[in-house]
Amino acid sequence: MWMIFVLLGVLFIVFVLLEFTPGDPARQILGAFADEKDVAAKRIELGLDDPFLVRFFRYVYNLVFHFDLGVSYRTKLPVMQEIASRLPITMTIGVLGLLVSVTIGLTTGIISAVKQYSWLDKICNVFAVIFYAMPNFWLALELSLIFALYLKWLPPTGYKGIEYLILPVTALGLNGSTAIFRQTRSSMLDVIREDYIRTAKAKGQSSIKIILNHGLRNALMPVVTMVGNSLGLIIAGTVVIESIFSIPGLGNYMLQAINSRDYPVIQGSVFVLAFMISIFNLLTDIVYSFLDPQIKSQYQSNGISRKRRVRTE
Amino acid sequence: MNKSNNKRKSHFRLFVQRFSRNKLAVFGLIFIVIIILAALLAPYIAPYGYDDQDVSRRLTKPNSEHWFGTDDLGRDVFSRMIYGARVSLSIGISTTTISMFTALIIGMISGYYGGKVDNIIMRIVDIFLAIPSILLSIAIAATLGGGIVSMLIAISLGAVPGVSRLIRAQVMAESHKEYIEAAKVTRASDLRIMFKYIFPNILSVFIVTFTMGVAGGILNASMLSFIGLGAQAPIPEWGAMLSGGRQYIRDYPYLVTYPGIMISITVFSINMFGDGLRDAFDPKLKGR
């Protein structure tokens, strides 16, 4: 329920932003040499002369009941259709990138915490801060320079098969894994000091079992929040990464729209991306409730939709 | 070192001592100072101007005359990188200043008054947080139509929601403490309590967040410039240089590599410096 308000809010923000854009959409559709009269007629046809709120609610109405996000200025095709054909590619990259970053982040984080101050811990830490400081588009460029242009192991650009996804996903994943690594490491370190870990050790349980069953399970909650956050970053990262590898996804589409000032497309893309991120946040909340029985019981007792969350930005 | 000597040390001396024990943080600080000096003294250090074009020397590889080579217009990459420090640093610092102080006001009001006010403000912040800050920045910069000023606004606004939430949590934790109660009993005004009592106590978090914010600002600025929404030619911003060198990456990879290394090292140093500051402010957090 709350998500609907968030999405309405996102739409409103994007809509307000477009209010500030210079230029007249009607003029943009018809071109610079169009007759003044035609432009005025087009304005009325598009309903641009209506008050702001009327236009906003019309936009929302069209979106909700007709799945309509307007028409692209550039290609004259419905924005929704264009986005729908590109979204799967972006989501594939995003989800794969997230998988890579979770895998790397979790394993290195656990190893680092268990073997704190060892050389492995130090190496992990150094790599984490280095990858954290690199802009992900630069990492992507360097990766394609090394693996595609020099070593010729992987194709540099395009999207024709799974091997085209390796470089973009690696770049996104490495970049995203640093935050998950840090979070995993620090919450594992917290948990390892707890009494119940000592108890489990005293019982003579194997150390792997202790780490996974007693340690990780309790350390996982802040990590899940962090995963939710990094998905947002990864999806935002695809915008640039796709353009570097010429992958015909939503991000690339949005960048082209930005360059040609195609506002309905920008509006629609930002909204759809925010929508996907909201859905993933909802999923994180559900995962959360599985991990934490307290929250689960809260859900069952009074259906509270607001959860305690640690937001770290 | 004996104990009586230790006692006489001021809070600040102890702070410096704790900070200087962290070698990476000291390295970060040194590098930041070098970058700041380079930015301030750019006209004296840089061998060429940032827009001195020499078409006869386009795309020369790094040599003794042009340390980092020249770009497609024959401009010296090394000089442009030094001038770029000016642009990147000032963008990083100014956007963070704007966003931190906006967030400070929002977070203070929300955290101090709590209740309904807090609820309303935080729900609005939630909405903004649904859009990742960089996507929000891209959207804002796209609407404002590129250029340095719109980039400044875009990055600052993009960072506000996250920081507001952080500051609000800090303020909230402080405002339930006893000394605030005591201040209220003496009928200190709300404004006085906020800035005279609460602010000094969240100052350490504020400073650390500020430092990290500068690093984030530089990264975001380079990204916006890279996709053409930030600094426009001939302004030598690192991200813009990267974007300009991109089409020559096959034969002249240094055009892409050097600016990228510059961004990474700068962001790395600032982050390490921030980490060191945090550990020095609160030794309990060390090693996390």
Structure description:
The complex is a heterodimer of chains A (313) and B (288). Chain A is an all-alpha fold and 313 residues long. In chain A, 76% of the residues lie in helices and 0% in strands. Chain A is built from 13 helices and no strands. In chain A, helix 5 (79-114) packs antiparallel against helix 10 and helix 8 packs antiparallel against helix 10 (207-244). Chain A is elongated and about 85 Å long. Chain A starts with a helix and ends in an 11-residue tail after the last helix. Chain B is an all-alpha fold and 288 residues long. Chain B has a single domain (15-42, 77-285), classed as Orthogonal Bundle (MetI-like fold). Chain B contains twelve helices and no strands. Chain B has helices at residues 3-8, 11-21, 23-40, 42-45, 77-113, 115-129, 133-144, 148-175, 178-185, 190-226, 238-245, 254-281. The two termini of chain B are 28 Å apart. The chains are: A mainly alpha (313), B mainly alpha (288). Chains A and B meet through helix 1, helix 6, helix 7, helix 8 and helix 10 of A and helix 6, helix 7, helix 8, helix 10 and helix 12 of B.
Which regions of chain B contain 5 or more consecutive residues with pLDDT less than 50? Answer: none
C-alpha Rg of chain B (nearest Å): 22 Å
Q: For the record, what CATH class of chain B applies?
A: Mainly Alpha
Number of beta strands of chain B = 0
Largest sheet of chain A: none
- Give a short account of the largest sheet of chain B: none
Number of domains of chain B: 1
Going by CATH, the architecture of chain B would be Orthogonal Bundle
Q: What CATH architecture of the largest domain in chain A do you see? A: Orthogonal Bundle
| Overall SS class of chain B | mainly alpha
Helical proportion of chain A?
over 70%
Please, how many domains of chain A?
2
Could you state the order of secondary-structure elements of chain B as H and E? HHHHHHHHHHHH
Mean pLDDT metric of chain A: 80
Biggest interface, residues from each chain: A-B, 54 and 52 residues
Oligomer: heterodimer
If you consult CATH, what is the topology of chain B?
Answer: MetI-like fold
Distance between the termini of chain B: 28 Å
- Specify the CATH homologous superfamily of the largest domain in chain A: MetI-like
Beta-strand residue percentage of chain B: under 5%
Count of alpha/pi helices of chain B: 12
